[in-house]
Amino acid sequence: MSKVIQVLETMASDASLINEENISTFLTTTEINAEQQRAITAKSAGQLAETIADLPELMAFSQVLPADEDAPIEDEQEDDNSASSKLLASSF
Questions:
Q1: How many CA atoms are closer than 13 Å to the CA of 82, on its beta-carbon side?
Q2: Is the model's pTM score more than 0.70?
Q3: At how many degrees (to 10) do helices 2-13 and 20-28 cross?
Q4: Which of 14, 23, 28, 41 is least surrounded, with the fewest CB atoms within 10 Å of its CB?
Q5: What is the pLDDT of residues 5-31, one digit of tens each?
C-alpha cells in the first residue's frame, strides 16, 4: 500500500504529470503492479482499493438509544397542563 501512496503523492506534487502520456510513462517506472497502474490511469479509486491487499476495512455503526420510558409524551404534558389550569381557574 505504501508504494501506491508514494506514487499518488508524486503524481499530486509533480506538475509535469498532468497529461495521460506523461502519467503512463511515469507509471511504467514505478514499483506498483499492472492492475494498480490501470486503476490509476482509469482514475478509479474503487478499482485501486480492490488491488490493495492490506487496506483496512472500515465499518461504522450509528448508535440507537432506547426511548426513555420515564419521559412524558408531549400530548400527556399538554393534557396535564390543561387540567392544572382548569383546576386553578375553578379554585377562584
A1: 6
A2: no
A3: 140
A4: 28
A5: 899 999 999 999 888 999 999 999 999
First CA to last CA distance, the chain = 81
Rounded to a whole number of angstroms, the CA Rg of the chain reads: 31
Q: Which amino acid is located at 85 in the chain? A: S
Task: Characterize 46-85 residue by residue with b for buried, 16 or more Cβ atoms within 10 angstroms of its Cβ, and e for exposed.
Answer: eebeebeeeeeeeeeeeeeeeeeeeeeeeeeeeeeeeeee
All three cell numbers of 56, joined, read 483496512
Q: How far apart are CA 3 and CA 1, in angstroms?
A: 5
- Cell 389550569 locates to 85
Phi and psi at 37, nearest 5°, equal -60, -45
Q: Which three cell numbers stand for residue 30?
A: 514505478
Q: Return all residues near 31 (Cβ < 8 A) that are at least 6 apart.
A: 3
Q: For residue 8, what is its C-alpha cell?
A: 499518488
